[in-house]
Every structure is written in C-alpha cells, then in structure tokens.
Specification:
By secondary structure, the chain is mainly β. Helix content is 0%, strand content 55%.
Length: 78
Amino acid sequence: MNVAVKFISIWNDGFEIETAAELNTNTGEICNIQSYSGELVDADGDELEILEGQYIEFNGKRFMVEEVGSKYIASITK
C-alpha cells in the first residue's frame, strides 16, 4: 500500500529541503519523489553541496532513507 509522506534531505550543517513522496508500506521503498523547485542555497546564500542525510516523515516520526542500488528504502518498522 502506498501512502503520502514528506521526503526530507539534510544539507550543509542541517539545512532541510522537504518534498512530497510516496512510501510503499509493505517494502519500505520510497517512490514518486517530487523535485524541489526552489533555489538550492541555504539561509546564508551558500550553495547546497554536502548531503548529510535523507529521511521521510511517516505517522508523526522520522525514518532514515538509504539508497540501495537505484531505489530509496526507508527503515520503517511494522
């Protein structure tokens, strides 16, 4: 079953970018990740260069996302 989630990428000392995505609750796979259409700079105007982590928000909690091959997988527990 796919459900809507927030996909969050953490950049440059904690600067967060949020987009919409879908989570397959059976497999943990994240799909249909929407592209970010804003400017890729932090609050100080510095370009976002260092990706520190990726997460989803699901059921009021954050779960880490890892890239496995060409897929994004969330470490959700059932």
